[in-house]
Structures are given as structure tokens and as C-alpha cells.
Amino acid sequence: PQTFLPSACAVTGMKNTGGSRGAKRRAGEHAATAVEDGMVVGLGTGSTAAHAIRAIGDQIRDGLDVEGVPTSFQARQLAIEEGIPVVDLDEVPGVDLAIDGADQISDGQLIKGGGGAHAREKVVDAAADRFLVVADPSKRAETLDGAVPVETLPAARPVVEHEIRALGGEPSLRRAERKDGPVITDNGNVVLDCEFGPIETPDTLAEQLSMLPGVVEHGLFVNLADEIHIGTAEGVTVER
Ligand code: 5RP
């Protein structure tokens, strides 16, 4: 891994704030330095990717010319606030670079979908020529063992739950914090958070989940990340 110390933060104008928020900011702002004039950029979802979106907004105010493909309603709103021209994936010939967060990272493989946006995130991140993951150190794990979000057609929920149990998982419907009901994704579906314990072969589980009728997309991102930018107290570590 390549480490960028606070001197690099100074060069890129990053604020040297402490704690997890500081680490997320450093990761997001560092990844945003990879954005170049004329690029189409995938704009990820979550608090770490939001730092990258804000940094791209700063660059646009300094004259950078880019287009952004948001991965969620939330990312789209922030991009508009930041003055980033937003386009849909089907309006551009391709995506040069995507910057997105993660919920857990092990050996370059990811669990995503903490914000329920993993279906669009996967399409945009996978379409990108270069996909940069941005995170704080708490996201690192020896083995992926977090719950895997599985976006599911609402009517297919019982059959998908049954099939997930048959794969050794324990699904639980994601509920909205302040409302009495399930979280509904940007695509109108529900999310099942599925506990599998330690996931020793993420590629196998990813394939099995993808094959289930009624599953729109799951949060295992296998062999998609090109670089992992981890913000730390000292700077940013980049793993390729
Ligand atoms: C949303 C995601 C996010 O990227 C992930 O939850 C990380 O979020 P944060 O940067 O706020 O920790 O996958 O679906």
C-alpha cells in the first residue's frame, strides 16, 4: 500500500480533522484528486463518498469540467447542490472513474448497501474504468462477516427469505428508523439484511445470491474495486 502523509493532505488542500469523520473526509477528498477534466464520474452514496462529491464540487468551482452519474437520490441531491452536472448512465458512453464507500472490506472484496443503494452503485461502479473505494479504517475486516443487503422485489420477499435460509443465511427485513414500515429503495423494492457469519468464499455466495429469482441485487462487490483509499489519523493509505 502507498501512504499519503499529512503533507500530502496539505498539497491536496485536505483538512486534517481527527476521528472517523476526519478519516472519511481524508479518504473522500484524496480520491477526488483522481478526477480529471472531461471525465464522467460515478458518484457514490454514503457519508464518505459525500466528501468526494463535495471535493468535486470545489474543483468545479475552480473550473473543472466533469459530469457525474449519481448512484442514489441522496448522491444526486448533493451533486446538484454542489453544481455538478448530473447525467444518467444511459446518457453517457461510459464512466471513467467511480468513487464509492463500503460497509466492510476484506482483501479487496466489499460488502455495500448500508444505504440500500447497492443496486445502482454496483451498476455504476462496475461500469467505471476505475473504481476507487473510500473508507475509514473501521471498515477493514479479516474476513467479510457483516450482514449482506439483498434488494428484493416486495412480492418475492417470502420466497427469497426461504432461499436465503437454504443457503445458510438469516434474513431480516430492513425497517425504516423513523417510520413504521420497511425501507423502500430508490427502485421501489425492500432490503433483506442477511447474516451468513464469516463469508470465506464471497465469489461463491455472490453467484448463489445473484441466481435467486426475486433478488434485484445484493451487496457483495467481488473483484470490482481497483483501489481502496483508507483515511487514517496520519493521512490516506491507498491499496491497489
Ligand atoms: C450505501 C453504501 C455506502 O457506500 C456504505 O454504506 C458506506 O457508507 P458510509 O461512507 O456512510 O460509511 O454502500 O448503499
TrEMBL record:
The keyword Isomerase applies. The keyword Isomerase applies. GO terms for molecular function: ribose-5-phosphate isomerase activity. It catalyses: aldehydo-D-ribose 5-phosphate = D-ribulose 5-phosphate. Gene3D superfamilies: 3.30.70.260, 3.40.50.1360. InterPro entries: NagB/RpiA_transferase-like (IPR037171), Ribose5P_isomerase_typA_subgr (IPR020672), Ribose5P_isomerase_type_A (IPR004788). Belongs to the ribose 5-phosphate isomerase family. This is Ribose-5-phosphate isomerase A. It comes from Natranaeroarchaeum sulfidigenes. The lineage of its organism: Archaea, Methanobacteriati, Methanobacteriota, Stenosarchaea group, Halobacteria.
